[in-house]
Design brief:
Layout: H1 5-15, E1 19-25, E2 29-35, H2 50-54, E3 80-84, H3 88-97, E4 102-106, H4 109-119, E5 123-126, H5 135-143, E6 153-157, H6 162-171, E7 175-178, H7 183-206
Parallel strand pairs: 3-4, 3-5, 5-6, 6-7
Antiparallel strand pairs: 1-2
Length: 207
């Protein structure tokens, strides 16, 4: 399809010292062969399960939770970042790699818009392809809102065509990051957006 499945699979296989190969013929189909070692090195790696990583972020029913209801100290200088993503694994990963911030979570654009109106985050990070309301429509509504239109929006997406990028610019997306992404790139983009926002605020206060 249009997602990152194959690219992500290759990275995961190579990270585990495995191999991936393809046999493909037109009108006949494709066969992907993944070969993985049955050992995780020479006992240097501990076995890690999904439960170990996400146990503090998931309810018993598998639904994602967060600190959305946590009160934030008004003297706290950490930025508040709203992450909107319908895939729990990616949502968990994004939240885990962001440096020194309060992270809030939402599963789709409609929920994200509601939470953003409630907490007024410093930055919104969102996917494009989501149920109920996609990232484009959510950003369009954010730019039409007097309460939210000043917030930088960062899109993390697998949709990397020129048409998608132009559509994103039209609705007011500030930055694009393409999946699979580098954590350093994400943090650098966040830092730049926060610094730019701070300069605007300082100039506004001076004037």
């Amino acid at each position: 399809g249009s997602g990152i499945g194959l690219s992500l699979t290759r990275q995961l296989v190579e990270a585990m010292n495995g191999e991936i190969a393809i046999h493909s013929a037109e009108n006949e189909g494709s066969v992907f062969i993944v070969t993985l070692p049955i050992k995780q090195g020479n006992t240097l790696w501990d076995s890690i399960t999904y439960d170990d990583v996400a146990s503090n972020l998931l309810h018993d029913d598998g639904e994602f939770t967060s600190d959305n209801n946590e009160d934030i100290d008004t003297d706290d200088t950490k930025p508040v970042i709203l992450v909107i993503e319908d895939n729990n694994d990616i949502l968990t990963y994004i939240g885990s790699v962001i440096n020194d911030a309060h992270i809030k979570y939402a599963h789709n654009g409609a929920e994200g818009l509601e939470i953003a109106t409630d907490i007024i985050p410093d930055i919104i990070i969102t996917d494009i392809m989501m149920p109920e309301m996609d990232g484009f429509e959510m950003c369009r509504q954010i730019r039409q809102s007097e309460m939210l239109n000043h917030i930088p929006v960062i899109e993390i997406t697998a949709k990397s065509t020129e048409k998608d990028k132009i559509e994103g610019i039209k609705v007011g997306i500030n930055s694009y990051i393409y999946k699979p992404f580098n954590a350093d790139e994400l943090n650098a983009t966040i830092t730049t957006a926060l610094n730019h926002r701070r300069l605007i605020q300082e100039n506004f206060i001076k004037n």
